[in-house]
Write a structure and sequence with these properties.
This protein has about 525 residues and is mainly α. The chain contains 24 helices and five strands. The strands form two sheets. The protein has a three-stranded antiparallel sheet with strand order 3-5-4. The chain has a two-stranded antiparallel sheet with strand order 1-2. Strand 1 and strand 2 form a beta hairpin. The longest helix is centred in the N-terminal third of the chain and has 31 residues. About 40% of the residues are buried. Bound molecules: protoporphyrin IX containing FE. Protoporphyrin IX containing FE (HEM) binds next to helix 18, helix 19 and helix 24. Protoporphyrin IX containing FE binds next to helix 18, helix 19 and helix 24. It is found in: Membrane. Its cofactor is heme. This is Cytochrome P450. GO terms for molecular function: heme binding; iron ion binding; monooxygenase activity; oxidoreductase activity, acting on paired donors, with incorporation or reduction of molecular oxygen. Its main location: membrane.
């Protein structure tokens, strides 16, 4: 409908009865809205955007742009192909005309992730998704609030603190090794080993480790298959598919919807969501989050109780939450007016550690085992030596980064946007022609273009980079060395091609079945 027609309708409306007047005004409002949407979605990216001349794939579907290709493809792979075709700056149009730019050069990354990080926050849609699982913790706060929170938390993740925790890993690791042995020995032909869903077992061992190291809580999900926390996370991670993610983004884009999804009211009325195809997964999400919040609240209550006991063994507790609770108490007692986290913020840290700290490490380990299962020579070499372990860990995290991509939103007029972890990690211009192959030896002879901050971004970099990086590395080394020393891993069947989910993390869709044998 043209603007002239709208004006004509408006002048007619002035001479009509109230009912007709209402109808005409509604018609005008709908027409204006329609024109606005048509301009944003169709006309702007094609004919008006200052970015329209930049190289990139075709604009794609008139409404979804390239979004369906991205969400249905393997995480980061469509983008990797575009970078090969169009170079280090690529423009991609997503749903409803949203434009994204991908930058790969270190100068751009330095600007977005480090120099101007406050002006490049995680975009609102991403923070809304994360806050539905991790609350308002480090992953979702921005600017000054983030600076204060991170400053308060950094000491708890220092190397001496983490090293003091390393003995906490051995209980769960020993338990996992014993379970795998028992499973294999129960087979008719134990020498042939057994096909086991390794991602599931790794999810349990990393959950038990994070509960112990972050909260001093023994979840023991390895021995207790009905463990409430493990079950809730299993359900939550199974929702991580591209189409579910697309539906979730559509729901939380409605103003007020993300607050509603986090409310008690939504949990109490979750059965309503089951009635519609596009909201069905929300019911599972609400149910899982309710359980996770209950267990988290109980863990936190225990920590708070510890902190008011005058002198006890609580002073010596080395888990992250005990350290944070003690630091907060010292801040409050000192009355110096320093930053002290509120009770809600403490609760959200519990959710953040659980959400960010176990599925990531489990995916990292599962993909490492897969790459080793396909490369028996490296597997054997690793078994024989301890030193190549470092190179191997870096290589598997480079090739299959558990968090394959992230985004930043320009908070000022500027043209820098997406940060595609997996694309950068496997960029041929940086890593050479074999960039997409698994080759642990490359870490012994790095290419001249290698940049220690920006060439492998599995943990990102800068003030929003992963606070748990050292913890994850120590943990992965401990789990991997115990598993490789005691077991051999092979693909479960000929032609096996595991697929990662295309959502937040690289969880393997099939839970990574592998044939596991005891080392002779
Ligand atoms: C292999 C394991 C891990 C990988 C690959 C990983 C990767 C990442 C990445 C890429 C980010 C940045 C996300 C973004 O900006 O969009 C991040 C942030 C974060 N990670 Fe990790 N992570 C791992 C393990 C952990 C662990 C064990 C913890 C804690 C217990 C943790 C806690 C966090 C937190 C709190 C943030 C937000 C940091 C901030 O914004 O200040 N992560 N992680």
């Amino acid at each position: 409908m043209s603007p002239v027609l709208i004006l004509r309708l408006a002048s007619q409306a002035a001479t009509q009865s109230p009912i007709h007047l209402f109808g005409s005004i509604s018609g005008i409002v709908i027409s204006v809205l329609f024109l606005r949407v048509f301009y944003n979605v169709y006309l702007y990216p094609r004919f008006r955007s200052p970015l329209r001349h930049l190289p990139g794939p075709p604009l794609g579907h008139p409404v979804y742009g390239q979004f369906l290709n991205i969400i249905n493809g393997e995480a980061g792979i469509p983008q990797r192909e575009w970078v090969k075709q169009f170079g280090p700056i690529v423009r991609v149009v997503g749903p409803i005309g949203i434009e994204r730019l991908m930058f790969l050069k270190p100068e751009a990354l330095q600007k977005v992730l480090i120099n101007d990080w406050v002006e490049y926050p995680r975009p609102a849609f991403m923070r809304k998704i994360l806050s539905s699982v991790t609350g308002n913790g480090l992953l979702t706060v921005t600017g000054n609030e983030h600076k204060q929170m991170r400053k308060a938390m950094n000491p708890a993740f220092s190397l001496p603190n983490l090293m003091a925790q390393s003995d906490m890993y051995y209980g769960p690791i020993e338990a996992l090794s014993n379970i795998l042995r028992t499973e294999i020995d129960a087979e008719k032909e134990p020498n042939n080993g057994k096909v086991l869903l390794m991602y599931e077992w790794l999810g349990k061992v990393t959950l038990d480790i994070i509960c112990e190291t972050a909260f001093g809580y023994q979840s023991d999900s390895l021995h207790n298959p009905r463990n409430e926390l493990a079950e809730a996370y299993e359900r939550l991670t199974s929702l991580q598919t591209g189409p579910n993610m697309a539906r979730f983004i559509a729901v939380i884009s409605v103003p007020g919807a993300s607050k509603l999804v986090e409310s008690e009211w939504a949990y109490n009325h979750r059965h309503w969501f089951e009635k519609f195809e596009h909201t069905r997964h929300l019911s599972s999400l609400l149910e899982s989050m309710h359980r996770i919040r209950n267990v988290s609240a109980a863990m936190l209550r225990e920590k708070m109780r510890d902190s008011i006991v005058p002198i006890s063994d609580s002073e010596t507790k080395r888990d992250i939450m005990s350290i944070l609770v003690r630091a907060r108490k010292a801040d409050l007692d000192s009355k110096a007016g320093g930053y002290a986290m509120s009770d809600e913020a403490m609760m959200d840290q519990v959710l953040t550690f659980l959400g960010a700290g176990h599925e990531t490490t489990a995916s990292g380990l599962a993909w490492t085992l897969w790459l080793l299962a396909k490369d028996l020579k490296s597997q054997q070499k690793l078994r024989e030596e301890v030193t190549p372990l470092v190179g191997l860990r870096d290589e598997s995290l480079r090739l299959m980064p558990p968090v394959p991509m992230t985004f930043r939103e320009a908070g000022k007029t500027d043209y820098i946007d997406g940060v595609l972890i997996r694309v950068i990690n496997t960029w041929k211009e940086l890593w050479g022609e074999d960039a997409e192959e698994f080759n642990p030896a490359r870490w012994l002879n790095l290419p001249p273009e290698y940049n220690s901050v920006f060439s492998s971004l599995s943990f990102l970099a800068g003030p929003h980079g992963c606070i748990g990086k050292t913890m994850a590395i120590v943990e992965m080394k401990a789990v991997l060395s115990a598993l490789i020393a005691n077991f051999e891993f092979e693909p479960a069947y000929a032609g096996q091609v595991p697929q990662p989910t295309a959502a937040v993390t690289m969880k393997p869709l099939d839970n990574m079945p592998l044939r596991v044998r005891r080392v002779k």
